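Table S2 (text version). Query chain:
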Amino acid sequence: MKQYLEQIEAMRVKLPPLDAGKLKYFAAVMMLIDHMACVFLENAYTADGASLMFSLPHGELADKLLRVAGRQAFPIFCFFLVEGFAKTRSRLRYFVRLLIFAVLSQLPFQRGIFPRGKYFHGNVICTLAIGLLAIWVIDSMKLAFPGRGDHFPERGDQSGGTNAEMSRMLSGFLFIFVSCSSLYGFSRLAAALRTDYSYGGVVMIVLLYLLQKYRITALFVSWAWLSWYNRFELYSAPAFYLLACYNGQRGKQHKYFFYFFYPVHLLILWLLRRHFFGV
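Corresponding structure-token output:
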């Protein structure tokens, strides 16, 4: 299996290089476009109670086009969540940072995206935080159950070889069991909190993590999963192509810009709609 994955990576054509900064700023713009459509076209209402999407000429088409553009944001942020997990000096601080901004973003997200919603809906940073916990547990299981048998006798010793093989099988079974249980539990948590992208987002983050050594395969499998989870996510294909162009460089970016951008732009959009439409 590993050989086939390496062959797929070797078949990659030369793509125009894009650094992390450019990809993240692109995702931020796409997210802004998506939320503008959702906040105004779908959740702003005229005096007769109709949403702008159905009141403006070609409003439905405009809404669909803007939401299609918005599909590009989530895969990019998930990809760099996995990248950040691998490179961060403190996974705990990384998680706490996500948790803090998830809390700060919840009110403008709930009021902006679900103004008439009766239930709690977790914002996308909640999904990223849950996904981070999921891959953190799985990564810890790799250390707890390596299954390599490095400390066992050589194959020449029949008894030792058998014990080593059984130990590797047991470690592999425990790793798969605990990892799948973890994924199931965190997916149920995302579904219970009704987070943006729900369990579909958590599973995609885990797929990107498990296949991170084989980027093209990881991107294709993740896109296929996300598209199966929600058919509308078929339109996210350009984002996965752009991620294939990632050159591994950080590029020019401010560390906290993207954290603050999410709650701030949602707050501004919500306040603008409330000012002009009273919702």
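Notes on Table S2: The chain has a mean pLDDT of 89. DSSP finds twelve helices and no strands in the chain.
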